[in-house]
Amino acid sequence: MDKRELGQSGLMISPLGLGTVKFGRNVGVKYPEGFDIPDEAALADLLNLAKELGINLLDTAPSYGTSEERLGRLLKGQREDWVIVGKAGEEFENDQSTYDFSPEHFEMSLERSLKRLQTDYLDVFLIHSDGNDMENLSDNLIEKMQDFKSRGLVRAIGASTKTPEGGIKALENMDVVMATYNPSYTDEKPVLDYAAENNKGVLLKKALASGHAANTKDSLDFAFSHPAASAAIIGTINPDHLRENVNAVSTPQEA
User: Which of 84, 143, 178, 254 supports an S-S bond with 203, CB 3.0-4.6 Å?
Assistant: First the structure.
């Protein structure tokens, strides 16, 4: 897969990213079927396969159970091979999500993520939405995100949003948005339109409707039919599904 730039960030990413919630959490997730969390040997094989297939983009978060800690061990000696997307704002403990969008919490959360991932920087750092995007995207938090970037702790900043207004505000003040866009949900298309007009980065979540999409290729063709779509984050722990997803990816030029 050919790499493409994520907006104006300077980061070169594969059009398919590997989501890692299934690396560390199998409770309270919105997939159609239950699953067991793989052991680290299986995850190492999956990461090696992803690299062989041309994937260099990984997505994780503190709310993904033990995903960050496991990636820290699994990626030893490979840091420069991967573009890592991290988040802050959501915690998941005792089978329950809680949210904290204070600058102080984000400082703690980023420091903890860097330790868990055994790295001194994240490539992309996102605000993890609870749905109240406009309320959470406060001037103080945006200023803190910009501070992380100026200190070299992160290379690009943005938000994983759930509303058109929130997505556009994130892009007005930061580099990247993670938005939902698939054939059955196009409410956030204005965010992608804004990104295309302003050369901002877009990562797509739920491009396969959290595993509910009827046709993988049709869904990914739809996702990449929008010129703003830099990459789609797909969460899988199945090597065959990973190969299928990579085979299904087509750029707008190829569609």
Answer: 178
Other Cβ atoms closer than 10 A to 193:
15
Mapped onto helix, strand or coil, the DSSP state of residue 135 is helix
Nearest to 230, CA basis, from 209, 204, 255, 206: 204
Q: Which of 64, 121, 181, 194 is catalytic?
A: 64
The whole-angstrom separation of Cα 88 and Cα 103 is: 10
31 in active site:
no
Q: What's the rounded mean pLDDT across residues 197-223?
A: 87
CATH code of the domain made up of 17-246: 3.20.20.100
CB 1 within 8 A of CB 15: yes
The full set of domain ranges for the chain reads 17-246
Relative to beta strand 231-235, strand 201-205 is parallel
- Cα pseudo-dihedral 232, 54, 20, 44, rounded to 10: 170
**Residue 231 DSSP code:** E
- DSSP H or E segment with residue 68: helix 67-74
d(CA 231, CA 139): 28
Residue 180 vs residues 71, 154, 155: alpha-carbon distances, Å: 25, 23, 23
- State the burial class of residue 29 (Cβ atoms within 10 Å of its Cβ: 0-12, 13-18, 19+): middle
